[in-house]
Amino acid sequence: MKKSIWLLGLCLVCGSVAAQKDTTPPPKDINLIAEFINADYEMGTIPMGKGTDFNVYIKNISSADTLMVVDVKVGCGCTTPKYRINDPILPGKISYITLGFNGSAGGEFTKFADIIFKSGQTKQVKFHGVAVAEPEGKPADKKQ
Hints:
- This protein has one domain: Immunoglobulin-like.
- Helices cover 15% and strands 45% of the residues.
- It contains two helices and nine strands.
- It has a five-stranded mixed sheet with strand order 2-9-8-4-6, with no helix packed on it. A four-stranded antiparallel sheet has the order 1-3-7-5.
- The chain starts with a helix and ends in a 12-residue tail after the last strand.
């Protein structure tokens, strides 16, 4: 009898521990500790098939938090990120990520990239524009 009461008590304790909610605070809004320049970048009209790139600048505006970029996920193979993984961005300092676009398809485009920080925070940035075919050059004059 004592064993069954003890076992019942143990089950109740284990069940209440498992039912407790995770009290870990959610990550801070990244926009409260970082300022992003070119997070919505207008490329304008670019020549189709000619690659171009631009920088997204990240300024740490917090007074105590150090930021670190651990990954940049892009939406497709036409976009290539370049960044320094785990490079600390100290309070008041600026770093950047370069996003390259190959311009392989013609017409209007909008592309996205997710910047992922070590703290678990994510910032989605985008760029957009129009890729147009360059006009055919006129044929060279033939000498006779």
